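Possible regression after last week's pipeline update?

I re-ran a chain I had predicted before the update to compare outputs. Posting the input and the new output here so someone can diff against the archived version. Not blocking, just want to make sure nothing changed silently.
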Amino acid sequence: MKKSDFNYQLPEALIAQKPLAERNASRLFCMDRDTGQIADRQFIDFIELINERDLLVFNDTKVIPARLFGKKQSGGKVEILIERIWDDHHAIAHVRASKAAKAGTLIELDSGYSCEVLGRADDLFHLEFKGEQSLLTILEQIGHIPLPPYITREDDQSDLTRYQTVFAREAGAVAAPTAGLHFDQAMMEKLKVKGVQSAFVTLHVGSGTFQPVRVEDLSEHLMHKEYFAVPPETVTAVQQARARGGRAIAIGTTAVRALESASKNGQLEAGFGDTDLFITPGYQFKSVDAMLTNFHLPESTLLMLVSAFAGYEHIMNAYSHAIDQSYRFFSYGDAMFLAHDLIKNDEF
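New output (post-update):
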């Protein structure tokens, strides 16, 4: 398939610019992976669609306030977006300035902090942050939440909590695992009371998740790398859920990529490292039975992933329906649930 196969026209008004007042107030688009049948529901109904045999797998990555603003000693303005933290004082980052920063350039930041450009690797820059404070501490003090490029407003105080899942604990992402944003503590507790088990993986979402596919031939696309970790207890939980006839339900495409990256040998294994797994139609899923996700950008790798999971024609029809019904799209938008045998006997 080609990149242009995954294009669709989205009215700008459907791009959610802010979260709803309540996390679980979004709509829930449901689609049967086998038949392509669809149903329009509310996200709170997700609890009804899960049973005590199922396992929900969440991505526990935590978004860091990765955007910094500063200036060169010449006075030129600089914007930094941390891509990955290497240690307490070093990171790789995107650096935007009127002229590309050269090795040795000192960038002055707010509150007396500064960093030096050590070198460049392709589109990214190696930075060293000066002083005794760790980079995470610096970001917590002067960093901004790195809202996606399609959110056209400036970040505000509410984004510190709303562009973060309630179960976030492993700092390192520069974009949120957005399917998880729909869950609040009350809903997590209701699922627990129902007997639904949960497990966690980590995938530190990088800014590359927003980068467009630039080549028409998908086989030529180079996927960005992201750190992932699948602990032994999650492997056991998936195995036990399937053994009791339940489903391993990935909450978000990032959880899917973590689980499938850990299944490259044919079965799910504990492990960690970098993944550049690019999932397109034809891919055989090994460890994921159902998926909760949001609506994704045209021609994006994430749209290709969900098309591989639920069928290209099904997904493109689903997106057409969602646009007709004015669903809210992208990070702060509505959710989609994809599963086998989801819609039966006029259940909806």
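Follow-up from reviewer: compared with the archived run. Residues 3-63+159-339 form a domain with the QueA-like fold (CATH 3.40.1780.10). Marking as no regression found.
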